[in-house]
Write a structure and sequence with these properties.
Length: 584
């Protein structure tokens, strides 16, 4: 009987722990296996942007590539797409899959006289310009982090699946002359997490609705095996980038394990006294993320796991304060790229972050029943508040100072945050600029910023939000989903600075998703409290007539709608899950 139970347990282990392995795999084979958390779907192109020949000689039946097939090659397929190359004509075609995606490409070849593999050059692109580019040069197309320009060989009467990058566009060119090849299909192999969008946002402004959803989708694509910053590059766990991403995940997907998995990876990869990713502010973002996580989800056991590292980090940070209560952090002193050459702005931002970090640390010590440490960290935060940085020029530093109560919100909003509209914004710190504007009660101004800045990317064809965006670059620039004329600038290839010059620029970067979390919290008005057990509903519709949406909580999905009535008051309807305390 005992042996039968052991056999049953082993069978269950194989079936449920490694469901992808057939019964012939056992013992050591099982121990060497790992599973993917992703699923894969195959997408046909939405449209053909360009082809080298339209005469019907070297490219034939191109429209068949836009038709959904069965994915199986056959010897009797007829009227397939055909490439015919000569010494002087090696044809190429540019395909648009309609949305930015993560994954690769699957090409299936039909029957032909020659049974040799067909050499094809593939060029993936987040923009049309990138897919049409050559590696290097002034516009800086690269194969860094993920291959996006390379040659493959597709087998006769077979299929080949290659590639792992972020892209929307694909250019395919024949490499050799004398080819006459039929192609059954060219499909995108879309790799993503199959998870529901529990949060939602709708209003009478379709532009805001699209921005909310685009931010959600941007982060969704970066939720691969870990939480990445970008799907083309860097495909890494950058802790600072994670903060806006985690706020978006809290808003759209709820309490997802990828967050703790990625935070733990960063912690384990950077034992103290190292700064996370070599950047002191990123270690502070790690701690601030944990504060947000507990506020939203109330997982005390997980917070306790972080306690030793958290205390060690706070104590380490406390050694970087001078006699004048000024931060003197070492390592890479970084807020975001547009402020990276402005020492006064960096200091102002870091001083503010130190205040916020020690306040968050004190709050978490209270949760962890550490009253002495709570008092210690509160006193350090009070010390840091006595030093007032002088920077009054950058929106990023001003926003952090407002959030740390080092600067008056309304004065900073009128003198710095709203100066020159959305010039000198950044997609990363745009979130904190919006948060500071909310603190100044300038909701109409914040909505205008979202429409103009993030909406500006949509106007240029974006389906995900970008690593950085300068509103001044719009002038005379063509969109990313069209061939660029000689009289226009290429918004992707002709601009960018620092690490994102030209086509190296990531057009799907999770840190740019801030409006998604901001709209749900400040416009829909959902403020999570008490470890996720309580929600305060405080809408700020600004110039909107109505707004409705949903929000994932630890007790279930909360649904809320607000409408401006004839007398100008807000009428609110709430559908709350059982166990959630809702206050207005």
């Amino acid at each position: 009987m005992k042996k039968s139970i052991q056999i049953l347990v082993l069978i269950l282990f194989v079936n449920y722990t490694y469901p992808q392995l057939p019964p012939v795999f056992k013992g050591g084979d099982i121990n060497r296996a790992s599973t993917s958390e992703m699923i894969k779907s195959y997408l046909v192109p939405r449209q053909i942007i360009w082809q080298s020949d339209t005469s019907g000689k070297s490219i034939q039946n191109a429209e068949t590539l836009l038709q959904t097939g069965n994915g199986q090659v056959a010897v009797n397929d007829e009227n397939l797409f055909r490439f015919v190359s000569t010494e002087n004509e090696k044809p190429g075609i540019l395909l648009d899959f309609g949305k930015e995606i993560h994954g690769g490409i699957k090409i299936s070849m039909g029957i032909r006289k020659s049974k040799t593999p067909l050499k094809l050059r593939l060029r993936f692109g987040e923009s049309v310009g990138e897919a049409m580019s050559e590696i290097g040069g002034r516009q800086n197309a690269t194969n860094e982090h993920s291959l996006r320009d390379f040659i493959i060989e597709v087998p006769w009467l077979g299929s080949l699946e290659v590639g792992e990058t972020g892209f929307r566009f694909l250019r395919v060119d024949v490499v050799d002359s004398g080819e006459d090849a039929t192609i059954k299909s060219i499909e995108a192999a879309f790799v993503y997490r199959d998870i529901p969008y529990l949060g939602s946002f709708e209003s009478d402004d379709e532009r805001l609705n699209e921005i909310w959803l685009t931010g959600a989708y941007t982060v969704h694509l970066n939720m691969q095996n870990f939480l990445w910053d970008g799907i083309k590059r860097d495909r890494l766990v950058w802790v600072g980038d994670m903060h806006p991403e985690v706020m978006t995940i809290n808003t759209v997907f709820g309490n997802h394990e990828i967050v703790s998995k990625s935070l733990d990876l960063a912690r384990d990869q950077h034992p103290l006294p190292q700064w996370m990713n070599g950047i002191s502010s990123y270690s502070m973002w790690w701690l601030l993320i944990h504060k947000n996580l507990y506020d939203y989800h109330g997982n005390l056991s997980y917070l306790k796991e972080q306690e030793p590292y958290m205390i060690g980090l706070l104590d380490q940070l406390s050694t970087f304060i001078d006699k004048d209560n000024k931060e003197i952090l070492n390592g890479n002193r970084f807020l975001d790229w547009p402020t990276s050459e402005k020492p006064e702005a960096i200091h102002a931002g870091l001083q503010a972050m130190m205040v916020m970090t020690f306040q968050a640390g004190a709050d978490m010590m209270s949760v962890l029943s550490q009253p002495e440490l709570q008092e210690k960290y509160n006193k350090i935060a009070d010390r840091l508040k006595k030093h007032k940085p002088k920077d009054n020029t950058t929106k990023q530093a001003a926003a952090l100072m407002v959030l740390a109560n080092l600067k008056d919100a309304q004065k900073a909003n009128s003198k710095v945050l709203t100066k020159d509209g959305v010039q000198r914004m950044s997609t990363f710190y745009g979130y904190y600029i919006l948060e500071a504007m909310a603190k100044a009660k300038d909701y109409n101004g914040a909505l205008r910023v979202i429409r103009d800045y993030w909406g500006g990317m949509l106007d240029l064809g974006a389906t995900t939000f970008w690593e950085d965006f300068d509103i001044l670059d719009i002038t005379n620039s063509g969109p990313i989903d069209k061939l660029i004329s000689e009289s226009n600038n290429d918004i992707h290839g002709d601009f960018g600075e620092y690490c994102y010059v030209g086509y190296r620029h990531s057009l799907c970067h999770g840190w740019a998703s801030g409006p998604t979390a901001w709209l749900s919290q400040h416009v829909l008005g959902i403020n999570v409290m008490d470890g996720g057990n309580k929600v305060k509903i405080a809408p700020n519709l600004g110039d909107l007539k109505w707004v409705r949406g949903s929000f994932p909580t630890k007790h279930g999905v909360l649904k809320v709608s607000h409408t401006i009535s004839a007398d100008g008051n807000v009428k609110t309807e709430i559908d709350a899950p059982e166990g959630l305390d809702v206050i207005q």
